[in-house]
Model the fold of this input.
Amino acid sequence: MADRKPFQYAALRVVPRVERGEAVNAGVVLFCRPLRFLGAKTQLDEGLLKALAPDCDPVAVAGLLQTMERIAAGEPNGGPIAQLPQSERFHWLVAPASTIVQAGPVHTGLTSDPSAELARVFVRLVER
Done:
């Protein structure tokens, strides 16, 4: 299909105890430069988070995930990073971090509908 364009995506993972190396996929960020699309979708499995780290605050983690969605969308309440161009926001979102929410490896693909692709990848990587 000639109308498909390249995109990049990464899972957003919650890593409550870095020393244990356990992670819960809690979202996806997807960037398609040719179609000028950047989006993130998140959903925290609080039961799984509690099983991995009973002392981890799910409200705080959900707030971090929502901020990542706002940054991807370029919303003013996403803070100063949300005001950067799409490509810079994507690279900021997937950059290695030592925080509790981390991006997994960046993968690539082809799509003609990045919004629908985000939904498909989300179902594949996050939904239970």
